[in-house]
Amino acid sequence: MAEARRDENAAIVTMGYVGMLHAASGSVERATDCLRESLRRAEQSKHPVSIQAAVLTAVGPHLFGGGEPDLEASLQLLTRDDVRVDDSMAMYRDVFLGATLAALHREGSVQHLARAIRSADRSASHDAGELALTFLAIAAAGLGYGADAATLAGYATANTTPYSRLHGPGYHWVLTLLQEVLSTVTDRDVHEVGGAVMSRRQIMALVTQLDALTVR
């Protein structure tokens, strides 16, 4: 329909979502073709919103398509175009880029995740917020802030419902990685219990503190 109306931006976004559906169903070749073409047309159009949408749909299968994530492919996509126009998509770009950097143990993850958490808090986006908080816990543990990481993990777990995307098959590696990085934290249980009863305001203060501590 978008093609018939010659609505290039709608066609680009639709093609990206079709690619994601193919990826979810295991049709890797079809998914790759759709996502690559969506990104090519978005960059050709030079429309910033289309570019944002195409990048996010292309990154999703690399991170959460099932099996092991392709972190290098995710990083390459997320850093090829730094377009921030639509607030919601900019928030998810920060989530995905922060998650990728955290999993790769690269610098800059905390800043992207903290910004995503603040955006999610302002827009009441629980989905983005819980994902960003979980990866912030991973990033904090990797940087040596074990107590803060366990606190964040405790809060995220206490505020995650059984229907959360984190319990989906494509996200299994996230929770596995979280358990790995927390396994050596001293008094982990104490900090997790403390985090579970913290208020949103207290957690946001901790996010701000970690953001300030890790700025280089």
Question: What would your notes on this structure say?
Answer:
The chain starts with 7 loop residues before the first helix and ends with a helix. The chain has 216 residues and is an all-alpha fold. The protein has two domains: 1-85; 87-216. The radius of gyration is 18 Å and the shape is elongated. It has eleven helices and no strands. The longest helix is centred in the first third of the chain and has 18 residues, at 28-45. The mean pLDDT is 85.
Produce the secondary structure layout.
Layout: H1 8-24, H2 28-45, H3 48-64, H4 71-78, H5 87-103, H6 109-123, H7 126-142, H8 146-158, H9 172-182, H10 188-196, H11 200-214
Helix pairs in contact: 1-2, 1-3, 2-3, 3-4, 3-5, 4-5, 5-6, 5-7, 6-7, 6-11, 7-8, 7-9, 8-10
Helix content: over 70%
Question: How far from one another are the termini?
Answer: 48 Å
> SSE order in H/E notation?
HHHHHHHHHHH
Number of structural domains: 2
Question: How is the quaternary structure best described?
Answer: single chain
**How much of the sequence is in beta strands?**
under 5%
Task: Estimate the mean pLDDT confidence.
Answer: 85
Number of helices: 11
The secondary-structure class comes to: mainly alpha
Largest β-sheet summary: none
The unreliable regions are: none
How would you describe this structure in keywords?
elongated; 216 residues; mainly alpha
